[in-house]
Amino acid sequence: MLDTTAAVVESAAELELIDGLPAEFRWGVATSAYQIEGAHDEDGRGPSIWDTYCRTPGMVEGGENGDVACDHYHRMPADVSLIASLGVDVYRFSVAWPRVQPGGRGPANARGLAFYDRLVDELLESGVDPWVTLYHWDLPQELEDAGGWPARDTAYRFADYAMIVFEALQDRVRTWTTLNEPWCSAMLGYCEGRQAPGRQSFDDAMDAVHHLLLGHGLAAQRMRAAARKPIELGITLNMGTSMPATRSLADQEAARRADGLGARIYLDPLLRGQYPGDILDDLSARGVKLPVVDGDLAIISEPIDVLGVNYYSSHLVSGVDSAGRTEDADGNPVSSTVPMGRPVTAMDWEIVPEGFTDLLVRLSRDYPGVPMVITENGAAFDDVADESGYVADADRTGYLSSHIAAVAAARQRGADVRGYFAWSLLDNFEWSYGYAKRFGLVHVDYETQVRTPKQSALWYRDTIRRVRGG
Ligand code: FCB
Question: How many CA atoms lie less than 13 Å away from 246 in the CB half-sphere?
Fold first, then answer.
């Protein structure tokens, strides 16, 4: 017999928190272009770093790729109806740069741009607000060949591309996110090589950090100047709470470094106009200097209207690795994560909702005055679908409930959080994990492309309706 006592008590507390969210709180679902669109070579789309990475043997689980994905490019109107049926206010999607500028520069590819034009119209006709992310990791391959994000020119190319999309959609789109998770682009893409383009150079990654931020700032300034009506402009960062594993100085230092390279190296230049001094010192001890040119920080700190926060987990950080070493092979100090012993998702990510509350409260304290929206939060679990495609995903529903409650708890402690997006609308291409990891509120049968809302989707719909008082 399933012991539900604890769960019931827990969810009563969660329910109370969630039901205390204001009626104007924004609710949404999020996706990204490469993960769902497919149609990888249609209507003039050029290759991106993800197309190339997927074709590099050994990089993606099962040799999978986004060629077809959820075939959203061909099923968009039905997918928009699905979104509307969940009762969300807003849908966050990304525009594929290689559809709009196949080689990353030059004039717009009208057929590629037309897809997003239709998507925006379809959303508005269905009563759903569009929220555009301009870059969710799919750099045109030609720009990578010219140096990628470690090259300064890429920042300028990004701003040009952003303006093409902005001019085409600004009459109907109010909310704009420049970049999704620059940490992933820089660190996973250029340092760890676990995501496209798969380079492994710390120096390249640090150059990428600065040029991603510069690209954000250049685009933000130009969009702001060209806006014909009020816009809501921001950037999305992925963050968690980094806690020292013990009170030892080594662990505290490791947690400081993890937080510095994971969060503050983005937050400080964006919101305070300077890089964090302790991290600059750490970098210079490694012989690394950020490629900052005079005037860059003023561009990067162009005021934003909303900070997008993506949260999945939090970590205990140690200054000693599993082999007992305090320095890596290059003599740099170690920051390793150690398990807290919490239940994990199918990604092996520990489930730490209170780390979410702590993060939001800390952000509102350290970077006051910037409203936040949770632009992604969700979980992969090993779903089992019945013959009809339905998944009774109590685990995902529990994750969502505890994390939305964590947001509500942060608001009670003063964090200015104005909305929440579940990641993700659909099961989709989970980057180097391929299709095995399912994050969707809606199950996708990849053979037939049939979509079936899971229990979590229905719970989410009912929760939104209840909180809004509908
Ligand atoms: C985030 C990404 C998103 C998805 C989720 C699980 O880091 O922004 O595309 O992969 O993780």
Answer: 6
126 inside domain = yes
Here the tokens at position 273 are 């106009």
Residue 452 lies inside a defined structural domain of this protein: yes
Q: Which residue out of 29, 376, 428 has the highest number of ligand 1 atoms within 8 Å of its CB and is therefore the one to mutate? A: 376
Distance CA(440)–CA(457), nearest Å, equals: 9
Beta bridge partners of 451: 444
Determine, yes or no, domain membership for 2: no
Instruction: List average pLDDT for each run of 10 residues in the chain, which is 470 residues long.
Output: 38 94 98 99 98 98 98 99 98 99 98 98 98 99 99 99 99 99 98 98 98 99 98 98 97 98 99 98 97 98 98 98 92 94 98 98 98 99 97 97 98 98 99 98 98 97 92
For residue 245, the enclosing domain spans: 12-468
Does residue 50 form part of some domain? yes
Is 431 near ligand 1, meaning CB less than 6 Å away? yes
Spatial contact of 435 and 38, defined as CB atoms under 8 Å apart: no
Total domains in the chain come to: 1
- Mean pLDDT of all residues belonging to the chain: 96
**Closest-CA residue to 448 (of 75, 13, 183):** 75
Report the separation in Å between the CA atom of 469 and the middle of ligand 1, taken as the mean of its atom positions.
31
* Ligand 1 contacts CB of residue 53 (under 6 A): no
**Residue range 371-410, pLDDT digits in tens:** 999 999 999 999 999 999 999 999 999 999 999 999 999 9
Task: Give Dmax over CA atoms of the chain in angstroms.
Answer: 66
**Domain CATH number, residue 238:** 3.20.20.80
Q: How far apart are CA 451 and CA 454, in angstroms?
A: 9
Give per-residue pLDDT as tens, 74-132: 999 999 999 999 999 999 999 999 999 999 999 999 999 999 999 999 999 999 999 99
Residue type, 419: G
- Report which DSSP code applies to 324: S
